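To make the argument concrete, we let one protein speak, a sequence paired with a row of structure tokens, as a model reads it:
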Amino acid sequence: MENDDYTNSSPMVDDIYSNCEIDDAEKVQNHRPIISSDQIDIDAYASLYSGRTKIIRLLFIAERCENPNLQIEALRMAYDEIKKGEDVQLFKEVAQKINGRLGENYGVDFGWIEGIERRAEQRKEKLENELNAYRTNLIKESIRMGYNDYGDFFYAHGQLGDAFKNYIRTRDYCTTAKHIVNMCLNAILVSIELGQFTHVTSYTSKAEQTPEALEPIVVAKLRCAAGLANLETKKYKLAARKFLEVGPELANHFSEVIAPQDVATYGGLCALATFDRSELKSKVIDNLNYRNFLELVPEIRELINDFYTSRYASCLEYLENLKVNLLLDIHLHDHVETLYKEIRHKALIQYTLPFVSVDLNMMADAFKTSVSGLQKELEALITNTQIQARIDSHNKILYARHADQRSATFQRALHTGAGFDRDVRSMLLRANIIKHNFNHKQSSKETTHGLFRNRGPI
């Protein structure tokens, strides 16, 4: 899957990164929000992606959504997209899922299947003959290209394990840093689809060890890959940092894996769940590069602003409205509940932090919840030492446990005095030892004793 895009990248023209005029209608589609409080716009969503990930995401929506109309529309779009490629097995699966609900035009097309399989056999035989010839002649660059073409063939036909093996085999025939980066990007692409994020981390690190070949677009892709790997392994703070480091060069150059809107959504939610107030300000709100991504997803931008300005009820309401669509995201769905829980806990902690006492009735109104439910949440946070406070259950008041500064000062003074006393005693002891020449006498006595002890009989 040789890709030279990063060596001949064109200037950025998208209006999310500059004020240039948009000439292409497709670019306009690419800037539509990926999520909203309304039902997901399946056409706008699908237009953000290309290749296999477009199909896989559509199938994921069809499997997870509860709206039958949205489900069948996603299957229809997946069917049409698959017929542009060569993955026969995936085509059969989609046709089976449609099960005649879209008419005879969306059934199993045996003629198409037969044609694809016939051409696949011919292509595979040709690739095998070429690769054997290259290996016989020991042409290193040709062997690398042969394995790469073989990997592309298997990838196009959905045989991801074989594709990964052939992409990795090019490693021994890479002669430039650019070749190594291409190998790593191909391995990353297949590993993400296979869900093998250990490989994603490994090959991202390997690519980063060749800085001479890392053009801005490649750097952006690697940071996206690292962000996804950390997200999948629930390292949310690391994931947030990686997504926040993605440069505007990304644009739609990694649409076979991720869209710029995903960078805003994944990074924003992970940052809300893990960053403290100062980090949120410096690394997210004041981050000019990341602001371009947030402009694509106004809901996430508003979430962050509401959280930072302590409008927690509005923030949590936004989150609840977006939840249905976020659960349809192929990478985010497993993490929505955890991220939501962490964001809510952070909101509760930050709300109580400035106050000596908090009326639980007022706090419950601010968080749109019941007093009893709020009390249970606060009790859990107090138990986990995330909030230093105690609850007056009768009067429904939360009292902060601030340190007794006077007592703490006395304790520090006593500790310092004890240390001073210990040091003075040590100095006096040393002075007396030196004054009475105790070390010298002791050494002489031990030496003399040793001499007499070691002498034999006279």
